[in-house]
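Lab meeting tomorrow. Please check the following:
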Amino acid sequence: MKKVWITAGFMASFALGWAFNLVKQDKAAKKVTGIGGIFFKCKDPQAMRTWYSKNLGLQTDKYGTSFAWYQGADSTKKGFTQWSVFSDKTKYFEPSAKEFMINYRVANLEALLKQLQADGVTITDKMETFDYGKFVHIMDPEGNKIEL
């Protein structure tokens, strides 16, 4: 009978540890994993791209440039951070009146979006899916628009 209780105890410990690990992983998946892009307004986006190209060596196109990097120690998982300039008249940052917008990379956008909705965070649009990723915009308490 003692062996049964010991076995049951080990099984219960394993099951609880496994369940705790799933909860821990689920919460971790909802967090920001890095910066996906930095965007700012300027009076003349083409002149700004040219200046950054000439003076800092950025290889720009009409969208800006992308910085390639590798995710952690895994040299097979490539990631990108986008740098872009927008016209100072752009409406893309609205409803924010700020000059900058940051895009954050997240591990599980759908799960994070559900949690943000439950927490009452202002979500400004619907999630869109493209071949290069999924995107949605939220507002922080000081009126900064954030792209996820």
